[in-house]
């Protein structure tokens, strides 16, 4: 759930305390707590994110618990063999781990109104203790050992590090309550705690990390139970900060419209006129990295991009406002901009009028016309607003208007960004005054051609979160709005790419093809079913679980490639859902075709024409091909182990075969490829569909060459190329790791370069086959390549079956959920 939906009504009346009372431990002028005593507590989605990450980390560590593994031994030896002076230093560092939580609790106890934080911390400690016991039991540590480790300061090592978990729970719970400097001290203390616990022999690295993860989970649960403050400035702090900027104000109250990550206040300026104060607080919890990361993933157009400092954000908004004003756009003038002594970034603008959204259907045509005229002037200066809507258009008593809130404004904006602004304004006005009036005024201001350019963007995926909520609340039918606008512009309604749905028949064909492939493979390599069943039954389920957990991460990496292939700004979450949906669609159509069709439909929903969407999909696929060919070349031309290398000193051929089955499997793979291609070309309906698809793609690119060339601009941007190549490279490496985990489940192993080469070769050829998921081709290929690197026949078949299970047959389960999510939100 978005943070703004969890946020309660913001008031400063509850923050009547101007300054925190002084105490003996707090020098004057030092801010310790991030918010006022009576500040509203909120429950944020980022706490859910941190809890999920902590639980995932614990589950991964449980697979290798209680240790020691090879890494545990090496890292422990590195920290423990540094001399007696280092032993003393590690002892002091671990002492700080317990001193700091005590300091936090003492500050809360001795400060009026902060004792509730003590209660929160005690609850977090109890939760951490319970979670530590559960993790220890699952990881193989008995209850008595876990309990004895609470007062232990040395060996034996225990999983998890219970003392670190208890300390971390207090530090994590208190983090939103204290200011940023104190938060950073807490994070440094936790880092020292993880390392010093290993150096003192209290836990192996796996146990120390588990202790930290347990503490993080306990703190996140506490935040979800009781909420945490947002870190906004009190009224006294606001007055002091503005006085430092030579802009004294009075009568400070919360503004009716708030944005995540900022604090917006109404006040009276020194000249007696109303002003709007926007503050990017140093201690605002929504400005923390994870909160910003979550917002950039799940919301579009509602907060600044990651990487901007607070100062650069207010400076950017001020510069954008001033340039818009110079272009003749009616705006709310900037009064002052700067940072306070406490490093809070502040922007002060004039405050006039009321939001146009408050007038509803009573908005007259003159104001609507003036709003469109202001937007046209803004875009004439190559500036995009970023989140324009009627709540950011101020209406004056004399009939005039002014645009406000340029926090997401873009200078030298792209055509896509400016067209998105037009679509958002058309949808907002249609929701307020009705489609007929909104379309008529938009056509008068933009012309028929300008209105036609907006049609493809009249879809939920192309709109920001605020506009989508307006559509939902007003029950506005975007399909009908798009049809009415097309009629007014005198052009046909843009059509969307058709999608082939997954059916039970396609699933049955995929399963039957796999069974046939394994029957054929087992006969060729002279392995009976009992041997395969025995091998599967002897699998180490810890490694199987690890492979299953890592499998969804492949889509996480591929999402970066898709984002890099698009010049249009995309939110990460829908792109991630797209990658999971592609795994689902691969059951119905070949993987390359599934990816192409689904991505074209996806990008069309964002307003891109068919040619541009097709170009993005092709660029994405070509970047994957480049990475695959590069990996094959690097492994083949260097000393890295490849198909002809040995495993553990064994020959390239498996110990239980003469090598002829490998040759036979290679022949079978080639034969299956040839038969697949021949069948597709020989069957009339298949041949016609291929020809129609190729001709349609060729004609589309010819007709819309300009859109296709616009999509190719990403090839000239190093950052985009880095995202594409890095995402695909990461995906190939992760898939190699999964294949290695599947081998480990049966007691075999291979070099990472061999695993990457096997996966790359098989996926490269299977992806081009006109067979859903490369069924049959992929199975035979994996068995052949695994045998070629020395894996015994029964292990090769079992590992190939397990690998295909966790990377092809099980992902459609969560892929179907992702496809449903995309349909519900109209992304496909």
- Hey, roughly how much beta strand do the residues contain? 5-15%
Largest sheet: 5 strands, antiparallel
Biggest β-sheet: strands ordered side by side in the sheet:
3-4-5-7-6
The secondary structure category is mainly alpha
**How confident is the prediction overall: mean pLDDT?**
77
Number of domains: 4
- Separation, N- and C-terminal Cα atoms: 21 Å
Q: How many H/I helices?
A: 32
Taking pLDDT < 50 over at least 5 consecutive residues as the criterion, the unreliable ranges are 1-28, 300-304, 645-662
Principal-axes shape call: flat
Rg calc: 31 Å
Instruction: Give me the count of strands.
Output: 12
Helix content: 55-70%
What does this structure look like?
The chain is mainly alpha-helical. It has four domains: 41-228, no CATH class; 235-350, 2-Layer Sandwich (Phosphorylase Kinase, domain 1), CATH 3.30.200.20; 360-489, Transferase(Phosphotransferase), domain 1 (Orthogonal Bundle), CATH 1.10.510; 504-824, no CATH class. Helix content is 61%, strand content 6%. The chain contains 32 helices and twelve strands. Strands 3-4-5-7-6 form a five-stranded antiparallel β-sheet, sandwiched between helices. The protein has a three-stranded antiparallel β-sheet with strand order 8-10-11, with helices on one face. It has a two-stranded antiparallel sheet with strand order 1-2. Helix 29 (752-766) runs antiparallel to helix 30 (777-788). The longest helix has 28 residues, at 610-637. The model is unreliable at 1-28, 300-304 and 645-662 (pLDDT under 50).
